[in-house]
Structures are given as C-alpha cells and as structure tokens.
Amino acid sequence: MPKISVILPVYNAEKYIEEAVKSILNQSFHDFEFIIINDGSTDNSLLLLQQLAKEDRRIMLITRENKGLIATLNEAISLAKAEYIARMDADDIALPLRLEKQFNYLTQHPDVAVLGTGYRFMSEAGEVGQKRRTLTSYEDLKASLFFGNPIAHPSVMINYKLLGSKLKYLDEYKTIEDFELWCRIAKEHKIENLKEVLLHYRLLPSSISGQNIEKQILSAAKVLTQQPLLEGKKNTIKLLQTTYCYSINSANYIQLLLACFKLNWINLFNPKINKLNLFKRSLFALLAASKKNLRT
C-alpha cells in the first residue's frame, strides 16, 4: 500500500499538465500513487497524460465525461488507498521536497488534519513572484478564516486516516469548496501550514478563483456563520462579507473598521478562539485596506 495518494483533476490543461505531473513524479519521496482524473478535456490533455502514464506505473489514469471539479475531487478521494492524500493542480509546480516534508510533519504530528505549505505565485509564462506571507499555527489560521482563505488548496496534504468520511467536498459550495472544507475541519481538528515554499501557484486569467467574486464572498460569509463561535448570532452575514472580502473587494475603509471592531467584540468572551490572533488579523486587514486606499 502506498504511503501517499496524490490526486490531480485535469480539465483542458495541455499547456501545463506535463510540467505539473513531472513535478510530482520527480519528488524526493517516491512511495505514492498518483490518481489523475481527466474530467472530459477537449484539448490534448488526455494524449499527454496517456504518454506520461506509460512511463510511470505510479500513475492511475481515469478519463470520462466532464462532471466538474467537486465531483472529480470526491471521486479521486474515493479511489485513494493511502493514509495521506496530497492535492495537486494541473497548472502548478510542486517543488522536489514537498511530499517528503509534508509526510514527515504529519507523521510526527498525528493530530494535524490538513497541512498546507508556503507558496509563490507564478505567471502564465512561468515567472515566479515573491513569497506569499504564510501563517502556520492552528490558532492563527482559525482567526484568519474570518478574513480570507489562509491555505493554498493545491499545496495541501490531508490526514485521511484521521478524517475518514469527513473528507468530502460539498456541491453547494462551488468555487469555495476548499474554504468550506477548512472551516468544517477546523471545528474539530488542527489545520496548519508549513512556512517553507514548496509550491509554485500559477495565476491564470481564466482561473475559477478569479470569477464570481461577489458570489464567493456571500458563500464564504454563510460558511463562517456556521462556525460554533458565531452560530445564533444576528446580523453576521453582512459583517463577515465586509471582513472576508477586504483583500479582493474595494470595501469602504470605515465599514471595514467597524466590521473588524464588531467581529472582535462578538468573540471577546468566547473561549473557542484566540483573541490576540483575531486582533492581529484585524490589524492586518486594516493595514492592507489602508495601503490599497493609498495606491488608489
């Protein structure tokens, strides 16, 4: 039985798929299965994948009609044989030590359910940018969920042994399926990041994460109201919409200031979240908004 199952959904990724797949095949850690599902691609992705599968027996290639990302991820999870599942995207590059570093950390910290990594954004042409600021601790990440998604989805390795049937993406949260999953898991288990950059994350104009921004913000706010510390609280949807979208939406600075104040006040006497971490995230949100206002 392999120690890691790497899952990779593919849809029309002919331009980058070979580089992405080879970045996994060339890892320093070798004991893994590589589950690749071709989700009804209409370009040459399948031909490239078939050739790669001939060259490496660790690849399990499945091809079928298009069902969408969430269905494809859940199908890949259902096929996984290992105790740890690593995500990968068809246009990103995993650095050579990624699987080794994550596997070692998770085996040494069996209470951690989700482990992301540091990453750098990468352009269509492969130009790598500066390192992104990465929060690492469980308490920091829990607080950070109120201000955005603190974990890069294609960087994660998940403790399948710990989560079991809880590891499932939900159809109703299309475009923020990863964010909803982190919020749900963080209620009961630790989520963390390694600080080290182990992934180059390609940004494309057609990226789904750049589409339907308002819908994403509303969905994220609804997810957050289901967190134990906010369940039953009134008027939290609008508050969370303001705090969550500060980095991707030109929110009014005064509205953001008030929202951060209210969010901290709601949680002032709640033992389930670290107040210092939440306060720090509020300051970061306000600082980012200040810089944005100065630039404009």
UniProtKB/TrEMBL annotation:
InterPro entries per UniProt: Glyco_trans_2-like, Nucleotide-diphossugar_trans
Keyword Transferase applies: yes
Coiled-coil portions: none
Ranges for domain Glycosyltransferase 2-like: 5-155
GO molecular function: hexosyltransferase activity
Keyword Protein transport among UniProt keywords: no
Keywords (A to Z) from UniProt: Transferase
Gene3D superfamilies registered for this protein in UniProt: Spore Coat Polysaccharide Biosynthesis Protein SpsA, Chain A
Domain of life where this protein originates: Bacteria
Stated name of the protein: Glycosyltransferase involved in cell wall biosynthesis
Organism: Thalassotalea piscium
